[in-house]
Predict the 3D structure of the following.
Amino acid sequence: MSKTSVTGIALDGRLVLVAHRNPTGQMGGRWEFPGGKVDGNETDQVALAREFKEEFNV
């Protein structure tokens, strides 16, 4: 069974939104673009919007 994930890049002029992983978690301390797994019958766009909301409350 395959899993689908999404990743997004948010730009505001010359600014780029990135996430800094928890230093004690998996791959701790790394920087990454926000994203995650697509749940159930979500579209990629809906999944990415949900991930941005969960991770950044935007």
Remarks:
- The chain is about 20% helix and 30% strand.
- The chain has a mean pLDDT of 93.
